[in-house]
Amino acid sequence: MRALGPGSVSSFLKIILDVVFGALWIGVAALALITLAAVLLSFNPDLLSGVTLDSEAGEVVRRGPVLAAGLMAAALYLAGILVIVGCLRRIFATLTAGDPFHPDNVARLRLIGVILAGLELGRYALWALTAWALPDVSDVEPSFSLTAWFSVLVVFVLAEVFREGARLRREAELTI
């Protein structure tokens, strides 16, 4: 089975990435609506005047701003994943076209690396904010993910490999 070009493994993966991209957009939209509802319900309790709440639901309403912040963090995380999948879709489009060392792929891979690093740093920031905002919750423990940082380094190395491949391709095109 071929790795590049139409009808190859890369074209199959491009289709999967297209489906995932659409599903991520649906997830971001759903999270945005849920966040909006949480904000409205937490700052305007009159909207819930006709609803009876048990103790657990009342706790959720009182912590509405914290819940909204958590939902916004989840939406930002999904947005980061959305950017990564979007870049991968464009990279796989060049692979399907049979042009793996397209110069734009270098910038796309670098963006993926930056987003991956940002998501990991965001995870640390979210842990710190959670520990500050909810001191009584001790279920979340900070952890350093060696796998995540290794992935970031691998993506940056791949970007440099693609940069060199694009340079060699350009050089070969100029050779008579």
Automatic annotation (TrEMBL):
InterPro entries recorded for this chain?
DUF2975
Q: Where are the transmembrane segments?
A: 12-43, 66-88, 109-134, 146-162
Sorted keywords for this record are: Membrane, Transmembrane, Transmembrane helix
**One Pfam family matching this protein:** DUF2975
Write the protein's name.
Answer: DUF2975 domain-containing protein
